[in-house]
Amino acid sequence: MQITKPKRKQGKVARVLKLVTNLLRPSLFIHLIRTLHFKSNHHLEGMRKMKRAKTAHVAPTTLIGNGERIEVGERTVIAHGTTLLAGQHSGRISIGEDVLIGPFCLMTCASYGFNLGVPANAQPMLEDDVRIEDDVWLGAMVMVMPGVTIGKHAIAAANAVITHDVEPWSIVGGVPARVIGTRTRPDSEQENE
Q: Number of structural domains, the chain?
């Protein structure tokens, strides 16, 4: 059994000197400049180009690629860490009204093919639109792949990878996502459909 010696308390002068030397480190300033540069160029540029309703809330940590091809509807909430990647040439992301997107979700309009005999870095890029209709809820870390339409009132469970269209009122989950249930419709909705 080893007995540890009690730590000797530092004097006020030593603590102040340590604080000052830590604040004057060049690496701290370099990190600060890199952080400000990243936020101003990557986040804000995409946010400015994106077409979004006045009542939509997009978290400041959302990564946006090709914002000019992204449209967000009224009362939509996009949580922190989400990535919205519209296509370079044609793929668009359209998000309806009253949509709730959980943290760290990914929506992409582009993926690469997997043709035999072609190296991975030479595969052709495939672009297709992503469409999320009204009153949809995506749980945390959901991936929505190119060409997917998520119907009205649908729910995607956390960690789902959505590779095919989701019918309205469906609850999907898993990898790849499949229907695991349906939402209960209000009586007025059932009569109208």
A: 1
